[in-house]
Amino acid sequence: MMINTQAKKARGWVILPFLACFLLLVTSVYQQISDKHDILALLQQGEPTATHYEELEGIYKTYGLYDQAEHLLSYGVIASASGYGGPITLLINVSQEGTLKNAVLVEDSETPLYLRKVLEAGYPENLIGKTVTQPLAAHEDIDSVSGATRTTDGIMLAVEKGMFQVGKNQLGLTVPRLKTFHFQWQDGLVLLMLLVAILASARNMKKLRPWISAAAVFVFGFMENSSLTIGNYLSIVALKMPAFSERPIWYVIVIGVLLVTLLWGRNFYCSWLCPFGAVQEGLYKALNLADYRPNSQLISYARKSRWLFLWLAAMLALFFNNPGIASFEPFSVFFDGDGNTSQWMMMLLILLFSIFILRFWCRCFCPMGVLLDFIASGRRKGQQLFRNKLEPEEGKAEKEERQGEEEPGWAELGPVEGEALEEGGMKKEVAASRACSGCQKGESKREQHPLSSGDKLVAAALAAIWILIIGALLQNTGII
User: What's the predicted TM-score (pTM) here?
Assistant: First the structure.
């Protein structure tokens, strides 16, 4: 009877991931179907009196808009440019005199907070009246919005694409040449750091890790605010990536980290380059005065919950057709001072408990960590399976010899590639981290110990942060 019960539970755990993936697929397909716009209704957002339209030639979809008396009202162009999270699409209306008559935001993939900041600054309405013969940046009354520069630039570039196309093709005017490739010196610095981290990790240059981590805090964190988020990878799933020519560094970081992790079988990003992880680790080393080891069961439950929140974030992002909604992480709050109320509260709790628990966010909540660890683990297991098929006996012997020695990523102190850190009590923390990884065999058979007062505080913090994660996601959607 017990065997049948266990078999049913095992089948349930196998079915659950497939059901979760099926729901994600259905949500994505539904959103793609329901998101089809009626062209005339869309064009009327920019030119309300238009009764019909004529499709014109152009790289970007262009329309002549007419009223009932067949008078040409304006030219409408639907153009997209890359913002912070992905494409920003606008409807641009240009008058016959060559001025911007209207600009309407149609679709975006931005983190809602960044977009709200730009809209509150007056974009894109503040561009109305500008001429097609002059770049928008040349106007003294137009400035990028601090803290949302990429979103601002994306809106301006989309408007310029529409204006310049109409100016050249329909009005026969001489228009400025659009910049087709965008690569700044800061992007070069990010690329250099990425290459150095890969090289240092490959050669196990542990002494460089603190310096690379500190540099990542400054470059990836405060300078560029380019921490990897789950929204980046949902942009790929939703086919809402930025254009390569406009955001090449996005592909270098997002696709580059994914490919290296997949081919290498090692989660080097969380170990070497994650700026928020480095901040937590710095807090732990600098301020930790207590020899506290968290209850392994608590950490195990928290680690498993990461999959639930990853799935929930993906569902909401796909349902609302905006990958930026999924970015509930507190990265932007810490490095840029921008976030919703839930993210601010979450960040404060994370920083407080990071003093006592090494990489509290990374270990218990980070969706990027669980995703990259899963990819790296899948690569290692696939490689081992392939070896076992080629050399069954040797493969089996090698697996037994290396059991428990595979590099797991940051979660078992992968950030230091298994290095035993020396600061007081850290060796115990390494052992505790390995013991509470939540994926070791036989964990369910461990003896249950009563929670200490410290463990009860951690349990309360876990529950509070789980609630705040849900709150952050709902605030991103605009539901609350």
Answer: 0.80
